[in-house]
């Protein structure tokens, strides 16, 4: 029994490790694909070369991020078959088709236009190339939608029946399964998080180059666009997070209890615990710093509204409070810090100091990784808060794992750690090298494709964002 528990624990650690590595790349590529579409659209509309140069600059980074996201994502399906075969068998009739739809719609769309987007900038017409960029951006959104629909169904399962083999099967049509109760909120919250992740990464790169050359037009433009995104999207994300939290309270109350650190029920208004040390053994939060009745005000919009605590949940059904409690605070804290930097940028913009406040630029650099940390903290809150279930309230994690020995899982976990840090470490190092170079007036095109295809005359070349008609070769 002890060895089986160790095997399940190692399998959970392995999945958490690989999915965390994977998640940071789609979170970046979703936002970056949309940013590229905006840049190319602005170039087509205005003809200003700075947009075309920034497009080329970030296109190279997008290519690396997209590739690492695809490679790391393959491991997910591998682990479903090796470490979680019982879950795959029981939930396969529901989640299998949804995952297949993701491949048939989003992945094929991305793959079909990615080559044109990466290597066709001087080989096809401007409008056709813009269409390719749009299709890749739309494809990343569709991909995220299918994956989040699957995850949301695992969080709030509806529209299912259980057949004689103990499998979950569709009962009332696919529409109810796809648009399950938590899906719209999780989709909006995650996509906005991806946009913020990209905005703060772009803003950090722009700030880095502004500190070295405040007159660089590319650095100015990318920093300005990133700060607009922070100022507008960060408050929107906080509002959407509140709606998502209310939905979670309705469908997964134990998760919210863990997030809030409410071990006890509060019949006359629950306090908002800002900080403290959850003590699950004694069922309390030690050294708690709290605001009386503020949790009821936030969650129920009534300071005196009663809120149930974990004392109403059987001990075996409680999520790990300590992890959920702190990951939630990291996510929320970074969200307010993002909004703070966005508001700071508005003040700087009003005073015409957006490019001349080194302290704000240094703060933007420090906030560069904040989006990645926040999405990981949010993902931990979502997934650990669902425990001890893989399908909430229906299928326990302990009953979902493959019958593997602990040493076998430990060996594969060690192999993943070594390979991931080696391969993806090299990829991240190369990304930093690309970002360390300032955007130039004539960004070179990636040299990984033939200059022309047989029988096709290249379109006019883009020189510094302007059109210069080239002679037929």
TrEMBL record:
Its main location: membrane. It comes from the Bacteria. Keywords: Cell membrane, Electron transport, Heme, Iron, Membrane, Metal-binding, Transmembrane, Transmembrane helix, Transport. InterPro entries: Cyt-d_ubiquinol_oxidase_su_1. Pfam families: Cyt_bd_oxida_I. It is found in: Cell inner membrane; Cell membrane. It is a multi-pass membrane protein. The chain crosses the membrane at residues 15-36, 57-78, 98-121, 128-148, 192-211, 223-240, 323-347, 359-380, 409-432. Belongs to the cytochrome ubiquinol oxidase subunit 1 family. This is Cytochrome ubiquinol oxidase subunit I. It comes from Sphingorhabdus arenilitoris.
């Amino acid at each position: 029994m002890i060895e089986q528990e160790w095997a399940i624990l190692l399998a959970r650690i392995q999945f958490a490790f690989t999915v965390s590595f994977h998640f940071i790349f789609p979170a970046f590529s979703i936002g970056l694909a949309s940013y590229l579409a905006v840049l190319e659209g602005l170039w087509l509309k205005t003809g200003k070369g700075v947009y075309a140069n920034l497009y080329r600059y970030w296109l190279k980074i997008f290519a690396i991020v997209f590739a690492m996201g695809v490679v790391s994502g393959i491991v997910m399906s591998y682990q479903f078959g090796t470490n979680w075969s019982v879950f795959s068998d029981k939930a396969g009739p529901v989640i299998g088709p949804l995952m297949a739809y993701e491949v048939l719609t989003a992945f094929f769309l991305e793959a079909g236009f990615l080559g044109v987007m990466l290597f066709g900038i001087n080989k096809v017409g401007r409008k056709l190339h813009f269409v390719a960029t749009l299709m890749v951006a739309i494809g990343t959104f569709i991909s995220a939608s299918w994956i989040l629909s699957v995850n949301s169904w695992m969080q709030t399962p509806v529209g299912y029946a259980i057949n004689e083999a103990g499998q979950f099967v569709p009962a009332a049509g696919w529409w109810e399964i796809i648009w399950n109760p938590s899906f719209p909120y999780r989709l909006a919250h995650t996509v906005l998080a991806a946009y913020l992740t990209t905005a703060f990464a772009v803003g950090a790169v722009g700030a880095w180059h502004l500190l070295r050359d405040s007159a660089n037009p590319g650095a100015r433009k990318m920093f300005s666009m990133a700060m607009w995104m922070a100022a507008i999207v960060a408050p929107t994300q906080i509002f959407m997070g509140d709606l998502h939290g209310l939905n979670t309270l309705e469908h997964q109350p134990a998760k919210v209890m863990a997030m809030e650190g409410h071990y006890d029920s509060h019949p006359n208004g629950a306090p908002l615990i800002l900080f403290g040390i959850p003590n699950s053994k004694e069922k309390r939060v030690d050294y708690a710093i709290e605001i009386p009745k503020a949790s009821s005000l936030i969650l129920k919009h009534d300071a005196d509204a009663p809120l149930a605590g974990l004392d109403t949940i059987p001990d075996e059904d409680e999520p790990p409070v300590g992890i959920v409690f702190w990951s939630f605070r990291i996510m929320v804290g970074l969200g307010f810090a993002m909004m703070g930097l966005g508001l700071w940028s508005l003040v700087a913009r009003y005073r015409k100091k957006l490019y001349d406040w080194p302290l704000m630029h240094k703060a933007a650099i420090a906030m560069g990784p904040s989006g990645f940390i926040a999405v990981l903290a949010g993902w931990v809150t979502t997934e650990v808060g669902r425990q001890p279930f893989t399908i909430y309230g229906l299928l326990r994690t302990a009953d979902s794992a493959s019958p593997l020995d602990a040493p076998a899982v430990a060996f594969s976990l060690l192999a993943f750690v070594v390979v991931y840090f080696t391969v993806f470490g090299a990829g991240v190092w190369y990304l930093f090298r690309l970002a360390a170079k300032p955007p130039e007036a004539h960004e070179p095109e990636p040299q990984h494709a033939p200059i022309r295809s047989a029988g096709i005359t290249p379109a006019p070349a883009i020189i510094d964002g302007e059109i210069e008609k080239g002679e037929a070769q």
